[in-house]
Amino acid sequence: GTSVTSAQAQPGIRSTKEYQALKAYVGVLAAKRNTPATQTEINKFEATLAKRRTAANNKVREQFSQRMSAAKVQRQNKRDKVRKMRENRRAEIAALRQNRQGKLNELAADRRAAITRIENEYNGKLTTLKKDLTKLQRKLAKATKASARAQIKAEIATVQDQITTQQRAQQNEISLVNTRYNTNVEVTKERFADEIAKTNARLLNAIRQADAAWREIFAAKKQNAQQHRSTDFQLVRDLSAKGVAYIKEIPVKGAPQN
What CA–CA distances, in Å, run from 88 to 57, 192, 207, 214? Predict the structure, then answer.
């Protein structure tokens, strides 16, 4: 915003009206240093100098506060961006996990559908064979001749073998489906685990870099503001010291001359 820009472009203490007022007054004192003055006048010179020095020092503090405020505004903006990056990371990882679950749900539905098709295909044949078996068992119960019973038993054995063969074939096909889908599930899980890990690492790295960057920038701006403050306080001290020296040179009216 404007406050941030103005604080960043803020000049040093030299161009402020407070420092210029102090400088101008020190110039006045320089011109008076050979002109005798009463102690009351000298006291007034000292009080005015102290007042202008205080005003300049207060301006130094104000400028430091403005620089720090601008740095803190920028820091907060950067922090907000990092927080948004963290939110986006969580959302992106959640979306990948949701996508993974969707793929696993699709595989589970496909598996169920494939098994159902196999069961339906074989169940029709098995139902027919079981009906044939029931008929033969009833026929056997009614048969009395040994030769007829032997023939029926042979037919029953054949049908039972067919039932067993069909049941085994059904189980084999279901096992193949389960094996295929188990493999697909593992491949899907591994693919998403790899994608989630890489995405997470990439986003966390970006967050760490952004987080470190704003801390580094803020530390540099704080150090810069402190350096400005220290330099500007020294400028005020040096200028004030000249004023004090000039006041000491002013001859006091009525005082004995060496």
Answer: 46, 18, 10, 19
Q: How far apart are CA 82 and CA 69, in angstroms?
A: 20
| 76, 226 contact by CB (below 8 A) | no
pLDDT per residue as tens digits for the range 118-157: 999 999 899 999 999 999 999 889 888 999 999 999 999 9
Which of 15, 16, 26 lies closest to 51, judged by CA? Answer: 26
Q: Quick one: which of 237, 244, 241, 240 has its CA closest to 33?
A: 244
**CB within 8 A of 152, min separation 6: which ones?**
136, 139, 140, 143
H-helix or E-strand spanning residue 209: helix 146-249
**Helices and strands (DSSP H and E) totals, the chain:** 4, 0
With CA atoms as reference, report the closest residue to 49 among 66, 32, 69: 32
DSSP-derived secondary structure letter, 147: H
